[in-house]
Design goal:
By secondary structure, the chain is mostly helical. The protein has helices spanning 4-15, 23-30, 34-43, 53-64. Helix 1 crosses helix 4 and helix 2 (23-30) packs antiparallel against helix 3 (34-43).
Length: 65
């Protein structure tokens, strides 16, 4: 399980990949709770369910390295 610090770092790195106008980016910028960010990621089409958010972040970050 990821620590809070590593999760925050992953979200920060993921944020840099997003278009500024996306709802997911705006949710991250506002400091929305994790579930709010995940719901916006579903609405933006990045994931199919909020439960996928952790795996999605890991996959994005692995591809960007």
């Amino acid at each position: 399980m990821q620590s809070t610090a590593s999760l925050e770092q992953a979200v920060s790195e993921f944020r840099r990949m997003l278009p500024a106008a996306s709802a997911t980016a705006r949710a991250i910028d506002r400091g929305d709770p994790w579930d709010g960010i995940a719901i916006n990621a579903v609405a933006d089409g990045y994931i199919e369910s909020a439960n996928e958010m952790g795996r999605f972040l890991e996959a994005c970050l692995k591809r960007s390295v």
